[in-house]
Amino acid sequence: MSNPASSSASSKCKSAENTDDDRTLAEDDQIDQNSGSMDHRFERVTVTLEKVVGKKFGLGIVSVHQRILVCKVENDSLVSGVLRYGDQIMEINKKEVLNKIDCKKRLMSCLKDKGHVEILLMRPKTPDAVKMIEQEIQLSQQPSSTVQSKQ
């Protein structure tokens, strides 16, 4: 004999599982759509930076949400024409960049030791991506208003 309470409970669990599965699929679809939209807004670019005696380095970077973003490119510098405002530095010589300090040290030491450095970038390529990155850089450079000194 089957127990009506247990079959009812199992069908309730089963329908709850189906709902969870459906929701997960919908969430997965949304994630796929979002990641797809990010893909067309940014491009992966590999550039080579060459050492030129007498030229200043001319690069400013900032850390935003654990990403290293170019926030300054000086005219007539090593990086002008190679890096752009808003570029995200992903790798230096095929090794992931860990933080702002790591990035600066590795760029400088590679240029000094080898005379060149290969940089993998994530570069914004649509106007909305450029605007989003500009806003993130600007916000990161504002003094924090949440920290207040107590006297």
TrEMBL record:
Bias-annotated ranges (Basic and acidic residues): 14-26
Bias kind Low complexity: ranges: 1-13
Q: Which Gene3D superfamilies match?
A: 2.30.42.10
Ranges for domain PDZ come to 46-125
Task: Show the segment(s) annotated as Disordered.
Answer: 1-37
Top-level division of the source organism's lineage? Eukaryota
Question: This chain belongs to which protein, by name?
Answer: PDZ domain-containing protein
